[in-house]
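Progress against Task 2.4 (sequence-to-structure conversion) is shown through the following example record, which the project officer requested during the mid-term review.
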Amino acid sequence: MEQMEMICFQIISSVGMAKSSYVEAMRAAAKGDFDEAAEKMKEGDAFYAKGHDAHADLIAQEANGEAVAFSLILMHAEDQMMASETVRLMAEENIKLYQKLTEMKEK
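Structure tokens generated for the chain above:
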């Protein structure tokens, strides 16, 4: 497998794991387990950082004048990164909402 394909698969795998962690965080919050939700968010952020670092390396290559071939797999990797960012934002907002609902129930 070509170096570029390996980098793309690293991005896809890492941000896919991040997205799964963010979904797990929302599910934990829905059950009222906010410690688990926070842990899953941290886990997701760590996975996302790996994918982001690989992507940043590609950007740095291109900025340094090296050719970075555009491909369908690279486009998919970037799409998965954006989807993961969106799921993270949704998870943050959902967790806040579940926390407020829990506080309201306790009053």
